Amino acid sequence: MEFETDAKEAGLTLASVIRRHLPGTSWNDARRLVERGKLFINGERERDPARRLEPGLRIEIRRNAPVPKEEIPGEIIHETADYVVFEKPAGVSSVPVSPRDPHNAMDLIRRHWSQAGRKPTEDPLFVVHRIDKETSGNLVFAKTKNAELELASQFRAHAVGRTYMCIAHGVVNSDRIESRLVPNRGDGLKGSARRPGQGQRAVTLVRPIKQYRLATLCEVRLETGKTHQIRIHLAERGHPLVGEQVYIRDFLAAGGKLLPANRLFLHAATLEFTDPPTGNSVRFESPLPEEFSMFMLRVLSANGNDR
Question: What is the pTM (predicted TM-score) of this model?
Fold first, then answer.
């Protein structure tokens, strides 16, 4: 079956449009048709039933189309009987945010296991720490209760080494940023406390790697690990991350101009901790995503933006 989307279907999801053209199709069947790789838009396979459509798209339903091996986002970079280290893509939650959220790191790990012929329920997964949905990079999950307790203890004691790479607006210099973070700094945003004694201590160490006229590639090391710590600290220094959508109010009020970006440029690059059963120090690295390199080449290095 083949059809073309019209003006009345602009903004509708792919699953919704399928139901319009296949009367009697349930929502589950429509979603399953897409997720199994049977839908093509302008000749390209589309697996997201929630994709919003625009007019003039050629939609094909190929029920007999062979399904290629599923390309599962993210990568398991190390696994033992006690834990698994996963390289999470940007745009994916660390843990499920709702019972029907299949696009999270834990479920992606199970899908990788399933593709390798293992039962997804063969090994449990225990949450040890999280990184923001918008952030890419290394995450560790425990596979036993003992490993969960040991790794969580290391994170609470700030005994885990974590290095991030980011691109921040403006020319950023080496800095040690310390403040006490509160859920509401007084204007509805998380941020540094304005009164002594409030909030939780947060320490961020910033080192510029490559300075451009409009932005800086930075290496950031955490002495503590609070929610949005890097994003808040750099924004409060006048250098919000490129791709930031939340902590930009002060920057814009001061006349700053945001660089266009299709993601938050924050990446969890290294993760170092003590292996629970052996007591040895282990370190895992995640290379800089291609989007970083392309942004620096096409946006920052263009038009004489190198310093």
Answer: 0.76
